[in-house]
Structures are given as C-alpha cells and as structure tokens.
Amino acid sequence: MRTQVAIIGAGPAGLLLGQLLHKAGIDNIIIENKSADYVLSRIRAGVLEQGMMDLLRKAGAGARMDREGHLHEGIWLSFLGRRERIDLKQHSGGKSVMVYGQTEVTHDLMDARMAAGAQSVYEAQDVAVHDFYTEQPRVTYSKDGREVELQCDYIAGCDGFHGITRQSVPADAIKIFERVYPFGWLGVLSRTPPVADELIYANHERGFALCSMRTPMLSRYYVQCALEDTVDAWSDQRFWDELKRRVPEDVADSLVTGPSIEKSIAPLRSFVAEPMKYGRLFLVGDAAHIVPPTGAKGLNLAASDVNTLSEVLRAAYLDKRPELLEQYSAICLRRIWKAERFSWWMTAALHKFSDDPFARRIQEAELNYYTGSVAGRTTIAENYVGLPYETVDTAG
C-alpha cells in the first residue's frame, strides 16, 4: 500500500488533519489501534476556541456544531464567596468560545471522512513507524491476521500521549519538559440542567471546583481531589456536598443534583516534547504536549498543530515548497508555550497546593488584581478564546 501522508491515530486531531488534507487533494490514510466505538466513547472536555471552530467549518465538519453548540461570551471566576464575570467577547475583540463535546467533534469528523470516501483503518495491531529519517518512511501493522506495510512520504503522529510515534524517536533526539501536579480532578457527568449559562471556575480554601456543561440537560462538574483518591471513595452524595461547599452560596442553592452517569479521576500535568519534527515524522497534539485542563487548551492546541501541519504539507505538495516543512516545529512551539503558561497560571491561581496561609493570600490578591483590572480581564479573555494562529512564512 502507498499514500502520501500516513496519519497515526483517529482521534479529533488525526481526523481533522485527514479531512483538511483530503480537501487539499493530498492523499492520506488514518491508522488507529482501537475501534471506532472505543474512540467515540472517550469523554473529554468540549470548549472550542474560535480558531478550532473555523477549522471545523473549513474541513466541512462544522454544520452540526453551528446548529447544536452553545456559544459562550464569558466565564465566571469565583473566589472569596463571590463571582466575577470575564466578558470574553468584550475583552478579546469580539471573539467567543463554543461549548460542544469532543465526542461530538469526533463523530462529525468521522462522518465527514466517511462521506469523502477517505480511508481509515481501525483495530490495527502492532502499529510501528519506520525509516522516518529517510526519504522513504513507512508504517507497518497487522489487521485481520494479515501483515500490512504502508509506504508514504510523511508520517503524522496524532496518537496521543501514550502513543507509539513519540516513543519511536531516539532518546537523544528529543527533549522533555514536564510538571506533574500534586492533585487530580474528580469529574462527574449528570443528566441535569447546568447550574449556570457559563462556566464557573471556583477557587476555595477546600480546593478548586468547576461547573461546566455539555448540553442544556447534560452537566459536567469537577472538584479537586487527592491523587491517591479513588472513584469508589466518592459517592454521588459526597461529591455534590463537596461541590456545594466550594461554590458561592447562590450557586449552591440553585444546583440541581442527580445520579452520575460517568465518574472519573484525571491527574494533571504539563508536558512538552521538543522538537515536534523528526525527519519526516511530525508529532501532533497530545503526542507532543499536555496541558492541565484548567485553561481548556488541550484539544485546541491539537487543532492549531493540525492547522500548521496542513498548511506546510499543502505548501510542500501544491506549491512545491518542501523547505517550509522545517517551520512546523518552531511555529507550533511558540503557541504551545504560551498556552502552557496560561494553563499553568489558571491552575496556580485556582487550586489548593498547600495549607500555607501566605500562598492563600497571594492567590486572593492575584484574582482580585486580574478581575479588578481591564488589562487583567483582557489578558484572561484573549488567552481563553485562543491566541491567533501563526501563519507560515513563505518569504524567500
């Protein structure tokens, strides 16, 4: 078998890249080691930046998002028993975010790929990448008892943090930057109306909390918990009682509770691998970087990587400018580190790290300053809606 671009991973990053390349007339095949149903079963956040909304529309996969998604023009920061609204639209030059679940994004991209007749291979076993430092990279895998070799021009590693593409890079060629946080998020999904029309990020002396939503009758809530906690230790009643303690009284009074339909604990980490290009192998999304979910940047950073990679591949094939592929890593990393900074700041300002009263007062002063300053509100807003995508430099 042969294709121009082999894409490893059929999550939203791989599917979005495949769709953009297909629309540009660049042949690609997606290889995924899980089933399509498994990929769709993964519960992830769903706050989309303006740039990702535009990319989904460009890929021909934005119609249902535009019909069923929920535009949000603000977020709430809660601390010291009060709420402060950050008007995203006002402070970012008219931009907003879309609340639309990652599962729905994946579903729409799968449907678009199927409608386009592009090839995806699910439940591929023993996937491996080879010879990506040469001009003839290839991917091998087994499917239905048959060994397959896929020859290609380039490989896109969209297979997540635990995927095989980054692990295939020689250890002396890659540099890792990482911070692991000393707590996790306990998340509950419930068929209840959201407690507010916009997300509430809560700083409390007992720990962080987040009130989010998926649809008008599907809510997602989180509380900061210890890393050693287990889901079994948190009954629904214990969760709701703790959430009510951490949000302002008016929010707690209007909270509609109900049985959880999904409950899980996620650890928090910041992670960046540099560079993101190794010969003809490109790392994309979680394969190259992880952010704590506080800033809603994970899926959106993957989208900005996809935007850059699709543009440089388009330039290589259609404009006969393969040298522009060398810009991929530097362009991506500039935006990634800015998003890492914002996610780190949100995490540091809103979570409980210790019982140190000095640290607590610093958090309160930080939140008071940012919410009490036009410059502070602007900083939060322009980062939350997403910094602009950097264009490929075609000069020269």
What is the gist of this entry?
Helices cover 36% and strands 28% of the residues.
Describe this structure in words.
This protein is of the alpha+beta class. It has a domain at 5-70 and 99-177 and 269-350: FAD/NAD(P)-binding domain, CATH 3.50.50. Helix content is 36%, strand content 28%. The protein is built from 13 helices and 20 strands. Strand 1, helix 1 and strand 2 form a beta-alpha-beta unit.
List the defining traits of the structure above.
396 residues, alpha+beta, FAD/NAD(P)-binding domain, 6-stranded mixed β-sheet, 28% strand, globular
Structural class estimated from helices and strands: alpha+beta
Largest sheet, order of strands side by side? 6-5-14-15-16-13-17-20
Question: What name does CATH use for the topology of the domain at 5-70 and 99-177 and 269-350?
Answer: FAD/NAD(P)-binding domain
For the termini, the CA-CA separation is 36 Å
Name of the CATH superfamily of the domain at 5-70 and 99-177 and 269-350: FAD/NAD(P)-binding domain
CATH architecture heading of the domain at 5-70 and 99-177 and 269-350: 3-Layer(bba) Sandwich
Major beta sheet summary: 8 strands, mixed
Shape: globular
Instruction: Calculate the mean pLDDT score and round it.
Output: 95
What ranges have pLDDT less than 50 throughout 5 or more consecutive residues?
none
Query: How many extended strands?
Result: 20
Percentage of residues assigned to helices: 25-40%
CATH class of the domain at 5-70 and 99-177 and 269-350: Alpha Beta
Tally of separate helices: 13
Please compute the radius of gyration using only Cα atoms: 21 Å
Q: Which band does the percent of strand residues land in? A: 25-35%
